[in-house]
Amino acid sequence: MKARLIIIAAIILIWTIMAVAIFSVIPQRQARVAPSATPTRTPKPTFTATATATASLTPSITPTPTDTPTATPVATNTPIPTDTPLPTDTPTITPVPSDTSTPLPSPTATRRSTPRPTRPRNTATPAPTQPPPPPFTGTIVGGSARCDGFTAVTGFVKHANGNPYAGVAVGVWSDVWEGRVSVSEADGKYDVSLGGVPPGKFKVAVVQLETCGQRDGLPTANACQRRSNVVEVTTTEQCSGAGASQVPMVDFAGP
Q: Which pLDDT does position 36 carry in this prediction?
């Protein structure tokens, strides 16, 4: 590239020198040629500017063209291609050919003896088991009227054969009174005092002494386990006349 520039500069310089030389030779040739014609009015001399030969220019070193850095455009961030969703494969449902059932040969029906229906037996519903009867049975056998202020429930406990039954607990209570307990003696007699208790209706039964409650160290009768039926008796305030009763009598018979 530099050699070409030097050659071009030399050619330009040569052309410049030749042009100056040509322009300096032409006026000299015109002055030498004399005209032969009749003298005419001498024309005013024209001043021809003679070009002064200029000093030959020393070819200047053509500056080497500097490499102009070409600004490389900054690469723009190429956007990351988005994931193009793949087309979902739509399953082609191939209809399954229905199984053509080959009719099986119908079996020859063999007669079977049909069993006779069994008749349900008359099963009687079992009756609910009744609790065993209490071992003792109580019965009112009488009573007496007393005007001396003594009130009680008394009687005898006997075996089924009539012999006295000793050691049997008999309790007397009411709906408003927790009651008392008395144990039969050797002759089978028991006495449950009602002293200090207002007259009214009372309940009498043979009880299980071990299951009774206590008050002031003495057994009470209203919460005891019963060993007989419950007999109801009544005491009155009147101590004479019909219906007067201060000492009801209840006997119990046991096994």
A: 44
Residue at 84 is within a domain: no
Report if residue 112 sits inside a domain. no
Residue 192 has pLDDT above 70, yes or no: yes
**How many domains, the chain?**
1
- Strands 225-226, 201-208: pairing is antiparallel
In which domain, by residue range, is 154 found?
Answer: 137-254
Could you give the CA distance from residue 17 to residue 63 in angstroms, rounded to a whole number? 23
At 38, is the pLDDT very low, low, confident or very high (cuts 50, 70, 90)? Answer: very low
Percent of the chain past pLDDT 70, that is, above it, reads 59
**Looking at residue 94, what is its pLDDT?**
52
DSSP per-residue string spanning 19-62? HHHHHHHHHHHHHHPPP-SPP-PPPPPP-PPPPPPPPPPPPP-P
Residue 26's φ and ψ, nearest 5 degrees, are -60, -45
Tell me whether residue 213 is in a domain.
yes
What tokens were used for 86? Answer: 């793949």
Query: In the predicted model, is pLDDT for residue 164 greater than 70?
Result: yes
Residue 176 lies in a domain: yes
Would the pTM count as exceeding 0.70?
A: no
For residue 216, give the CATH number of its domain. 2.60.40.10
Contact 199, 151 (CB under 8 A): yes
Query: Which residue would you say has higher pLDDT here, 39 or 78?
Result: 78
